[in-house]
UniProtKB/TrEMBL annotation:
Native species: Roseomonas alba
Superkingdom per UniProt: Bacteria
Name the UniProt record assigns to this protein: Phosphoribosylamine--glycine ligase
Key words of the record: Signal
High-level lineage: Bacteria, Pseudomonadati, Pseudomonadota, Alphaproteobacteria, Acetobacterales
Keyword Signal: yes
Alphabetized PROSITE patterns for the sequence: PROKAR_LIPOPROTEIN
This protein's record includes keyword Signal: yes
Signal peptide start-end: 1-27
Length: 102
């Protein structure tokens, strides 16, 4: 395959790769625009709590489902705490409601 013929395929893959963290366990994290929101999503992704789940992942389906459910709660909390800390959300504001994900 020549490089020129591979470029259109690469163009199709970029949106899929960029949008990977908008679903799954990240579905409850708001996709707000702006630099503070982007920084808070990065902070949540790099948090020791989130990384611990990656280290604990195993082949046990029941354990994986439990971890997924916990991450659906943890990631929005980390994001919301960061937004409050950076002044993007007022202190004492409620966290957004969780969305149902499958």
């Amino acid at each position: 395959m020549k490089i020129r013929s591979a470029l259109p395929l690469l163009g199709l893959m970029v949106p899929m790769i960029v949008g990977c963290d908008t679903g799954g366990v990240w579905a409850n994290v708001p996709d707000d625009p702006g630099p503070v929101a982007a920084q808070c999503r990065r902070e949540a992704a790099n948090s020791p709590q989130y990384r611990l789940y990656g280290e604990m992942a195993g082949g046990n389906a029941a354990n994986n489902e439990q971890q997924r459910q916990e991450l659906l709660v943890l990631l929005p909390r980390l994001y919301h705490d960061c937004m409050v800390r950076n002044g993007a959300d007022p202190a004492g504001s409620p966290a957004p409601r969780d969305r149902v994900t499958f």
